[in-house]
């Protein structure tokens, strides 16, 4: 150092590298001015100095990157402090309230989704779950980026999934119980298809009843009181159970609903609780099959030496109230209304008309393309005249020629009856026996003619006659 020139000796003693001194001496005045301006730009600022060349910088892992320059980490930390851009954790109370709101709202939404298909219900709930999770994730990111608010992410996601899983489990268990309850409630008086339809769509069954267009069916064993008095109770029960089982099976076969048994009587309804358009047709075809089955059973009873049962039936179609009637703890699915009462009247009126199956003109109008009928009479429903018909056969089966001729002759006689041409009507009704010996409706019509000839009918007859002759047969 002592051998150095004085100026270089001063720099050396100050610890400045001679090469640096040479570099400084090589800087021109203009370059020095530029350097001074550059250095002044750092005034009042924090400068982080470090190595950034490849292979020289310090690299360490961070939460976002596995290898990050520590120089940048220091700068980011300084910036956070200056800008006061600190991450703010959400208060526990708000987080708890958020969790509660998510659980309640998702549970409510998941529980209110209903569809006839279980698969569709599950798909809708799954879509809601995914959409909810996506929205929550977007909100979390937005709050963190814009306001540096740290919302818990993983726990709510687990909560969303867990809530829907619990809703699925709850609905599965409760709906299975409801299905079992509904099956137990309805399987004894509706067929399996109707039960499955109600389980798939419980809204079809409204408690308390609703107005529906249905067809009601009534049947009653003729002379049952006399039969019951002549048989031991155990034999009577066995015979009646055999009869009711066979008849009910046919009702179910055609989609009917068993309303009730009243002793030997059967009450059924078609078109409720699950509505279908051809309820009148089904009721008529089922009743024809019931009479056919009953004829086969009478043949078997005859061979066994048992009492032979016959049954009269009545069918009416119209608006009626259908639903669960009774108390809050014990009720029965049934139908009510004037059209129901008229259906019962048609069954009991079989004695008056000598018919086995009596149907109203409303039922006949809806089923006329499928069945063959005979016009029996005109009766009053709450003061309004209604034509009564006897159900004879399916249209596809047709009628024997003699029966067809007997039906035509009977209806000609009935027109003469309502025209008050008693003698001509009697002649026609007697002619029916030439085609169908012992015809029941013709016998009853003869009696009515004889009574009308002896005692002039009143105003009600004139009302019925006007309807009979004005509307045709």
Total number of helices: 18
Give the mean pLDDT: 85
SS class: alpha+beta
Poorly predicted parts: none
Determine the strand fraction and express it as a percent band: 15-25%
| Count of DSSP strands | 12
Question: Nearest-angstrom radius of gyration?
Answer: 47 Å
What is the N-to-C succession of helices and strands?
A: HHHEEHEHHEHHEHHEEHEEHHEHEEHHHH
The amount of helix comes to 55-70%
Overall, the morphology is: rod-shaped
The largest sheet, given as strand count, sense and whether it forms a barrel, is: 8 strands, mixed
Q: What is the first-to-last residue Cα distance?
A: 144 Å
Structure explained in plain terms:
It is built from 18 helices and 12 strands. By secondary structure, it is of the alpha+beta class. Helix 7 (154-186) packs antiparallel against helix 8 (192-200).
Spell out the blueprint of helices and strands.
Blueprint: H1 6-13, H2 18-26, H3 29-40, E1 59-60, E2 68-69, H4 70-83, E3 88-89, H5 92-112, H6 118-147, E4 149-150, H7 154-186, H8 192-200, E5 210-221, H9 224-229, H10 233-253, E6 257-262, E7 265-270, H11 279-304, E8 311-326, E9 331-336, H12 338-348, H13 350-353, E10 357-360, H14 361-367, E11 371-381, E12 384-394, H15 401-418, H16 422-435, H17 440-454, H18 459-471
Parallel strand pairs: 3-4, 8-10
Antiparallel strand pairs: 1-2, 5-7, 5-8, 6-7, 8-9, 10-12, 11-12
């Amino acid at each position: 150092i002592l051998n150095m020139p004085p100026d270089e000796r001063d720099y050396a003693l100050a610890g400045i590298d001679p090469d640096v001194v040479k570099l400084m001496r090589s800087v021109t005045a203009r370059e020095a001015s530029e350097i001074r301006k550059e250095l002044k730009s750092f005034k009042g600022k924090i400068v982080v100095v470090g190595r950034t060349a490849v292979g020289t910088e310090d690299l360490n892992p961070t939460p976002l990157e596995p290898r990050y320059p520590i120089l940048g980490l220091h700068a980011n930390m300084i910036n956070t402090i200056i800008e006061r851009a600190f991450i703010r954790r959400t208060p526990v109370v708000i987080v708890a309230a958020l969790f509660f709101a998510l659980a309640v709202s998702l549970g409510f939404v998941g529980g209110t989704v209903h569809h006839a298909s279980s698969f569709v219900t599950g798909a809708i709930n799954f879509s809601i779950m995914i959409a909810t999770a996506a929205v929550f994730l977007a909100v979390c990111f937005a709050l963190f980026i814009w306001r540096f608010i740290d919302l818990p992410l993983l726990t709510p996601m687990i909560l969303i999934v867990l809530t829907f899983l619990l809703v699925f489990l709850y609905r599965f268990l409760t709906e299975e119980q409801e299905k079992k309850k509904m099956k137990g409630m309805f399987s004894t008086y509706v067929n399996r298809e109707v039960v499955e339809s109600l389980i798939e769509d419980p809204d079809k069954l409204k408690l308390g009843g609703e107005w529906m267009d249905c067809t009601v069916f009534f049947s009653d064993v003729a002379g049952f009181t006399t039969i019951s008095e002549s048989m031991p109770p155990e034999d009577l029960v066995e015979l009646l159970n055999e009869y009711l089982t066979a008849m009910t099976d046919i009702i179910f076969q055609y989609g009917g609903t068993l309303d009730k048994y009243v002793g030997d009587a059967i009450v059924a309804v078609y078109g409720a609780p699950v509505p279908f358009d051809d309820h009148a047709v089904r009721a008529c075809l089922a009743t024809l099959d019931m009479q056919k089955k009953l004829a086969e059973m009478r043949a078997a009873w005859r061979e066994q030496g048992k009492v032979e049962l016959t049954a009269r039936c009545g069918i009416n179609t119209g608006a009626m109230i259908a639903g669960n009637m009774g108390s809050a703890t014990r009720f029965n699915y049934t139908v009510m209304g004037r059209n129901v009462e008229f259906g019962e009247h048609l069954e009991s009126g079989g004695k008056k008309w000598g018919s086995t199956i009596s149907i109203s003109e409303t039922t006949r109008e809806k089923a006329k393309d499928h069945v063959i009928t005979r016009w029996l009479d005109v009766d009053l429903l709450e003061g309004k005249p209604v034509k009564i018909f006897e159900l004879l056969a399916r249209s596809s089966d047709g009628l024997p020629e003699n029966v067809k001729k007997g039906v035509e002759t009977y209806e000609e006689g009935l027109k003469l009856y309502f025209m008050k041409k008693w003698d001509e009507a009697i002649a026609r009704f007697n002619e029916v026996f030439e085609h169908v010996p012992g015809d029941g409706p013709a016998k009853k019509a003869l009696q009515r003619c004889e009574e009308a000839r002896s005692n002039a009918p009143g105003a009600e007859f004139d009302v019925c006659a006007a309807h009979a002759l004005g509307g045709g047969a």
